[in-house]
Design brief:
The complex is a heterodimer of chains A (about 350) and B (about 425). With about 350 residues, chain A is mainly alpha-helical. Chain A is built from 15 helices and no strands. Classes of the chains: A mainly alpha (about 350), B alpha/beta (about 425).
Chain lengths: ~350, ~425
């Protein structure tokens, strides 16, 4: 167990160093903004994949936690002005509590019912944000900017420092989630996904496993929300609207549910497409729709999953000469789900 | 699936990603050219339900930019509008606004966003310190709340509170004359709907103390079916009904309420009726709806205003909207301020804008002023009148002198803790 964790940590460190070096190579603020948004949506989508890919629970209400993160953080900063790291921890704690309450009801449900009840909770929270004007600012959102006092010499009002901070949060968040899915708990979660009855007979508490995954996913989604609220210096009801959840599902479909970094690839892809297409075309919805059709009907899986499977298939084919053909079939089958 | 087709799909995927990457990488290069051209960013909503309004903002801005450029541009620099769709999402509005400044090299922003987007762009203006003129958000707090004030942000749009003062005064006059005491309201259930209705009712009651509101319906925004609200209103049997539904919501409501013969049973006050998009969309516009002016080429009844409306129609094949005149006026303000400042520099233009009065077809008395204290326009044409189902749609508009509006606005600001 030790060496894969170390490898992941090294990989994370290298990724962070590359990101940190990026501003030295280019002066493009767009690139910096792009990475900050990638961090927000990447954390959000990867956390959804904890549920979809590893837990087999397709949530349509995950935007609830994204919005929750943005609002809790914004409100805490506007009202108390506490140090940012503390506010982030508090936000994650709030998200955990909400996720615990929502999850306690939802994770008992199966498939479509789970999807719909999570959606219902999200719309409930969205309506609360709209209605609770004195606290949330209603449908105008949290106005007046989010104060960003310096801490430990870090000034998040400076876009470059915000960039580094977001990149660090992204890498740390991804590492933590990676650690979760490769821990015994992660494997239990996969077992519950594949065969809950069997897992139950083996002594696994299915309900608790699912609930834990739900809470963890909620916490990381809220971290994504924090980054987004720092980026726009506000929080808006759209963050907790169902379209936000839809976007995450879209990203996961685009990038892939099997490979851990699939949603991250999906995020980059979606944002690139979005930024590029809205720049040149008026009917960008048409283009994005066509792309998702291409993935759904053409690749039939997310991009990263597709690439991984393709590489795997090629490697097996190369080995096929010496080792025989049955292995290849087995390998093909094995690659279908998150392992 | 065969190996070849898989590979070709993959290549296609790479092509899309590659093209997108190339786009991003080339951004700074695109921004490189500057010199004689001054780029002005205009984020607005070009897709979704209010796309029509966003498009009309763009059209009007382009129309005016053409004139300004023909007259020498902004202090000698030709304006190039860079227009982007924000889809009406605040995070997109923030992103697009930042990108317009940081990557496209825009030196000024005309923020043609609706309310939440406008607040997001406002924060971008705070961050980047760029001169920003909000052109479509009517939410009073954007300029009235001193906590939100920025030296570099202006509003060139109607303000909810001004409309309410005029609407309340106008309605109270009729209520007193015809003894309309039983009122109902039917407005969309979100901040704009709640606030505007509350302000209207406040002034109505202030000037016609006998009025009482006996029924309130709050349909959701973008709701397709209003049967529930309509029957609720009919059951209460009010003498008059107020609504600040707008756009497609208002026209659907009228079409559906007409089936129940609602308009023969009570007077209807719809602040957002007198905009050409709404007027022309209703199939059988009932006569006698009372409405505020959004944009109507006959009010103010001047040749300049009529000429502007006609010029717009000649170019784009339809009449301008309320969003159109606000964006056109913003371009005019920038041009005049640049002339006064003798520079296209954002800071100098901002300085010149404060307190600037310009001649305009949209002014109540032929001029509009950018009030210095809260950096929002005053003196624009604001009135109410009775609509008829054909042109000129509102033959006569009544207004309230701006001096009176200022007095009531000052009281309102005090009550809100803004002053």
């Amino acid at each position: 167990m030790k060496s894969p964790a170390l490898r992941d940590a090294l990989f994370g460190l290298v990724a962070f160093l590359v990101l940190a070096a990026l501003p030295l190579l280019t002066t493009s603020s767009a690139l910096i903004d792009f990475v900050i948004r990638c961090a927000a949506l990447g954390l959000f989508a990867t956390s959804l994949n904890l549920l979809v890919g590893y837990g087999g629970m397709v949530s349509f209400g995950h935007g609830l936690f994204f919005g929750m993160g943005a609002y809790s953080f914004g409100i805490i900063m506007q009202r108390t002005g506490m140090p940012i790291p503390l506010a982030i921890l508090l936000t994650m704690a709030v998200a955990a509590m909400v996720a615990l309450a929502v999850g306690a009801i939802c994770v008992r449900l199966k498939e479509i019912y789970f999807a719909f009840v999570t959606l219902a909770f999200q719309m409930l929270v969205h309506s609360m944000i709209i209605a609770w004007v004195p606290v949330t600012g209603g449908d105008q959102g949290l106005r007046g900017g989010i104060p960003r006092p310096s801490f430990l010499g870090i000034n998040l009002a400076d876009q470059k420092q915000l960039y580094l901070f977001s990149a660090a949060l992204l890498v740390l968040g991804l590492l933590a989630m990676r650690h979760i899915v490769s821990s015994p708990f992660g494997y239990t979660l996969r077992m519950v996904r594949d065969n809950p009855t069997r897992a139950g007979f083996l002594g696994v508490d299915v309900y608790r496993t699912r609930l834990t995954a739900f809470v963890l996913a909620g916490v990381f989604a809220s971290l994504g929300g924090v980054v987004m609220s720092l980026f726009v210096s506000g929080a808006y009801p759209e963050f907790a609207f169902w379209t936000m959840s839809g976007e995450a599902v879209f990203i996961v479909m685009l990038g892939g549910t099997v490979a851990f970094l699939g949603p991250m690839v999906g995020t980059v892809l979606l944002l690139l497409l979005n930024d590029f297409v809205t720049r040149v075309a008026e009917h960008h919805g048409l283009v994005l729709g066509a792309v998702i059709l291409l993935f759904a009907l053409g690749l039939r899986k997310g991009l990263l999953d597709f690439v991984m499977d393709w590489r795997e298939a090629r490697r097996t084919r190369a080995q096929a000469g010496s080792a025989g053909k049955d292995k290849m079939a087995a390998a093909d089958k094995m690659e279908r789900v998150a392992t | 699936m065969t190996g070849t087709s898989l590979r070709s799909m993959n290549r296609r995927g790479f092509l899309v990603a590659g093209a997108a990457a190339a786009g991003t990488v080339s951004m700074p290069w695109v921004a490189g050219a500057q010199a004689k051209v001054i780029k002005v960013g205009l984020p607005t909503i070009l897709s979704g339900r209010v796309a029509q309004l966003g498009t009309s903002s763009r059209n009007a801005a382009l129309l005016e930019v053409e004139k300004v450029n023909a007259a020498g541009g902004l202090a000698g620099r030709t304006i190039e509008l860079v227009i982007r769709d924000t889809k009406g999402q605040p995070q997109e509005a923030a992103r697009v606004a930042r990108e317009l400044v940081n990557s496209d090299g825009c030196e000024l922003l005309i923020d043609a966003e609706a309310s939440t987007g406008a607040f997001a762009v406002h924060e971008v203006a705070r961050d980047l310190g760029i001169l920003c003129v909000h052109t479509n958000s009517e939410t009073s707090s954007l300029s009235a709340d001193p906590k939100l004030k920025l030296a570099n942000a202006f509003r060139c749009a109607r303000q909810g509170i001004h409309d309410s003062v005029v609407g309340g005064t106008y309605a109270a006059e009729i209520a007193n004359a015809k003894n309309l005491t039983r009122w109902a309201t039917c407005s969309p259930d979100y901040a704009y709907g709640r606030d505007t209705t509350a302000e209207f009712v406040m002034y109505l009651k202030q000037f016609a103390p006998k009025v009482e509101v006996i029924s309130e319906a709050w349909p959701k925004i973008f709701q397709p079916d209003y049967t529930e609200s309509i029957t609720k209103i009919l059951q209460a049997k009010p003498q008059a009904l107020y609504s600040c539904l707008w756009g497609g919501d208002l026209t659907s409501f009228i079409d559906q309420a007409a089936i129940y013969a609602l308009f023969t049973q009570m007077q209807f006050y719809a602040v957002n009726m007198a905009d050409y998009t709404a007027l022309t969309a209703v199939k059988n516009l009932p006569a006698g709806i009372q409405s505020g002016n959004r944009y109507i080429k006959t009010f103010p009844a001047t040749p300049e205003n009529a000429a502007w409306g006609d010029a717009y129609k000649a170019k784009y094949g339809e009449y301008p909207t309320n969003w159109s005149w606000q964006n056109a006026l913003a371009v005019n303000f920038l041009a005049e301020a640049a002339k006064k400042a003798g520079s296209a520099d954002g800071k100098k233009i901002a300085e010149a804008l404060r307190g600037l009065s310009i001649k305009s077809p949209f002014g109540a008395d032929g001029t509009v002023t950018m009030r210095a204290e809260d950096q929002t326009i005053v003196g624009y044409a604001v009135g109410w009148g009775t609509t008829i189902p054909k042109e000129p749609y509102v033959p006569e508009m009544k207004s309230v002198p701006w001096q009176r509006i200022f007095e009531l606005e000052a009281e309102w600001k005090k009550s809100k803790g803004f002053a």
